[in-house]
Specification:
The protein is an alpha/beta fold and about 375 residues long. Helix content is about 40%, strand content about 20%. It has two domains: about 110 residues, Nucleotidyltransferase, domain 5 (2-Layer Sandwich); about 220 residues, Exopolyphosphatase. Domain 2 (Nucleotidyltransferase, domain 5), CATH 3.30.420. The longest helix is centred in the first third of the chain and has 21 residues. The radius of gyration is 23 Å and the shape is globular. The protein starts with about 30 loop residues before the first strand and ends in an 8-residue tail after the last helix. The chain is built from 14 helices and eleven strands.
Length: about 375
């Protein structure tokens, strides 16, 4: 017997209107802008539990530091590109009526003879007031942005932020902190690498360093070397030479209980290549753990592709292809010194650190495990 046809079968379904998303209260919004040597990035977010919810964002490769290595100054063209990007940021801030914000500039503006003049120009043209932060604060903000990715099994932590103009490394000893408290102990570093005494178990910053070599500046150092493989080897060697002042440089570290967290476009691009992603997906990349062997395999593949192959590789992208090998040279040097099976990929950085720091200072983040 054929099944009975249900009443109403074949009829057009009634339209169901989904409720419009609630417009966030501007009083709850925070913004963070990071103007680096290569990129301009901004986030607008709302506190949510012990994290935050992103309301709007902006990211653009402005190449502010282009030519800085040779001239010591920001060029007119790079400043014009950056001001255009800043206008878009200003429009977004105005649209969302954001009052709490922190807008910072890093290595390119620190090093350029006309860095302060450029920020005055940005203020005249857009009304946005940026501040140049020092390397220690830049390193600290990168560290706290990665707090949710710190494993409770980690006793020794190395956070690496590979920027366009500099690379920050921070070595942290968590062995005296109870396992469940380790991510939160990292977050408490927003008050400084050597915060005042508190009743909470503290993360100990063993050493930190800001190397004035990032993906753009390291590439510019060896731009006259024509052979691709030779240029890569020289960049990796040169970066390692600049780590001699870093306290853990000569110490052999146990692999057990040791974690590296890498935050940068280089690390996320290598992760996307490892996963074979045809389209970048942050949810698959952020928090991914890779072994030294997996990273080395990706870098070897980049070398085999050569410059032309890398340009046409969709996993690298047009904006990243010119800088990926200098970033990979930095990453290879670090893994040569501190091999690990627990490199965590962080698709987060200065912007997230700025947001966490502002929200933590205002006490709007809930307490509890991440």
């Amino acid at each position: 017997m054929a099944p009975r046809r249900p009443r109403g079968a074949g009829a057009f379904p009634k339209a169901v209107e989904s409720p419009a998303p609630n417009t966030p209260d501007p009083a709850e919004l925070y913004a963070a802008l990071d103007l680096g040597t290569n990129s301009c990035r901004m986030l607008i977010a709302q506190p949510q539990g012990n994290q935050f919810h992103v309301i709007d964002s902006f990211s653009k490769s402005v190449q502010l530091g282009q030519g800085l290595e040779q001239s010591g100054r920001l060029s007119r063209a790079s400043m014009a590109r950056t001001v255009q990007a800043m206008r878009i940021c200003q429009q977004k801030l105005k649209r969302h009526k954001v009052k709490r914000m922190r807008l910072v500039a890093t290595e390119a503006c620190r090093r350029a003879a006309n860095g302060a003049d450029f920020l005055a120009m940005v203020r005249r043209e857009t009304g946005l007031q940026l501040e140049i932060i020092q390397p220690e604060e830049e390193a600290r903000l990168a560290v706290i942005s990665c707090a949710p990715l710190v494993s409770t099994r980690t006793e020794q932590l190395l956070v690496v932020d590979i920027g366009g103009g500099s690379t920050e490394l921070v070595w942290i000893d968590l062995s005296a902190v109870p396992a469940r408290e380790r991510p939160r102990a990292i977050m408490r570093l927003h008050a400084g690498f050597h915060p005042p005494a508190s009743p909470f178990p503290a993360a100990k910053v063993v050493d930190w360093i800001s190397v004035p070599l990032g993906v753009a500046t390291l590439r510019d150092h060896f731009i006259d070397v024509e052979d691709d493989a030779a240029r890569f080897a020289l960049m990796s060697w040169y970066f390692e030479e600049n780590l001699a002042e870093f306290t853990p440089y000569k110490d052999e570290q146990a692999r057990e209980g040791f974690q590296i967290v890498g935050t940068s476009g280089t690390v996320t691009t290598v992760a996307a290549s490892h996963l074979g992603l045809k389209r970048y997906d942050r949810t698959k990349v952020d928090g991914l753990r890779m072994t030294s062997d997996q990273i080395d395999k990706v870098i070897r593949n980049y070398l085999e592709l050569g410059p032309d192959g890398r340009i046409n590789d969709p996993r690298i992208g047009q904006d990243r292809q010119a800088l990926i090998m200098s970033g990979a040279a930095i990453l290879q040097a670090l893994l040569r010194l501190w091999p690990t099976d627990r490199l965590s990929v962080a698709d987060r950085g200065l912007r997230e650190g700025l947001l966490y720091a502002q929200m933590s200072a205002d006490g709007v983040l809930e307490d509890g495990p991440f």
